[in-house]
Amino acid sequence: MHRRMKGDRPVETEAWGSGDAAPALVVPGGPCRDPEYLGDLAGVAEVRPLVVMHPRGTPRTGGRSRGWWNDAEGLVAIADALSLDTVDIVAHSAGTRLALAAAARFPDRVRSLLLITPPATWLTGTAHDGAILAAQRNEPAVTAAAASMAAPTPTTEAGFQRAIRVEAPAGYARWSDLERAHSSDGGMTLAAALAWFDAIPDDAVDRVLGAALPDTCVIAGDRDILTGVQPVRDYARLLEADLRMLAGCGHYPWVEQPSAFRAAAVGWLGR
């Protein structure tokens, strides 16, 4: 069950599922991608209620991000509106940066983190190994995606949207009809994506790594060209996080390996 929530919040949210348990808060990636692409997260809300954030820069909330470091305040505002003293945060991809910022800045408000296919090189400095994974695929669509990813960031909206389409195959371990259909869910814009990286403190990495972070779990895919594999392993180690590396999986585990993802996510949230 999905229902739109309103209230005194800086961003729009949706409530998924029902039950007496306190909801976990979900942060989509992109950055600033419409949460439509999350689908139903393989039915996790059937076991644990979820409240999904529509970040600044997405259609329902509008506006522009103030940068992922500052937008972490929005999660605290949602928790306040829900009368939650502490929250479990579930974040995907770029949204994991906001989740870590919330945990570092507001440690008394974040009970745990579930970080799904996080970009990791910004935190670890580990060389990205996505090109190696792409070369192993030997598929024209994946080769084209890897070449586009290595090119400079587009400077026009048209170029940005073209790059999203070309690079989509790199997000999945397979490029079948299922993955093609999912790749078109949940759009994002160049302006919103660029704003996500505004006003980030120079010492953000040091502040995250120096914080007393809560219990953390990382779910990753061993075929994720977007994040690479070794950077994510190092990321989990630095965060002293549990790492669940899913076999035969790319950047969207609830789409590609729904049973394994659901087991890992529900196991963590229901522990």
Global Rg: 17 Å
Number of E-state strands: 8
Uncertain runs: 1-8
Distance between the termini: 23 Å
Global geometry = globular
Physical arrangement of strands within the biggest beta sheet: 1-2-4-3-5-6-7-8
Mean pLDDT: 95
SSE order in H/E notation?
A: EEEEHEHEHHHHHHHEHEHH
Q: Kindly name the structural category.
A: alpha/beta
Give me the number of helical elements. 12
Q: Percentage of helical residues? A: 25-40%
Largest sheet: 8 strands, mixed
Structural write-up:
- The structure is a single chain.
- With 271 residues, this protein is of the alpha/beta class.
- The radius of gyration is 17 Å and the shape is globular.
- α1 (68-81) packs across α2 (95-105).
- Helix content is 38%, strand content 16%.
- It has an eight-stranded mixed sheet, sandwiched between helices.
- 45% of the residues are buried.
- The longest helix has 14 residues, at 68-81.
- It has twelve helices and eight strands.
Brief summary of the model shown:
With 271 residues, this protein is of the alpha/beta class. Strand 5, helix 2 and strand 6 form a beta-alpha-beta unit.
How is the topology of this model organized?
Elements: E1 2-5, E2 12-16, E3 24-27, E4 50-54, H1 68-81, E5 87-92, H2 95-105, E6 110-116, H3 121-124, H4 130-137, H5 140-150, H6 157-167, H7 177-183, H8 190-195, H9 204-209, E7 215-221, H10 230-238, E8 242-246, H11 253-256, H12 258-269
Parallel strand pairs: 3-4, 3-5, 5-6, 6-7, 7-8
Antiparallel strand pairs: 1-2, 2-4
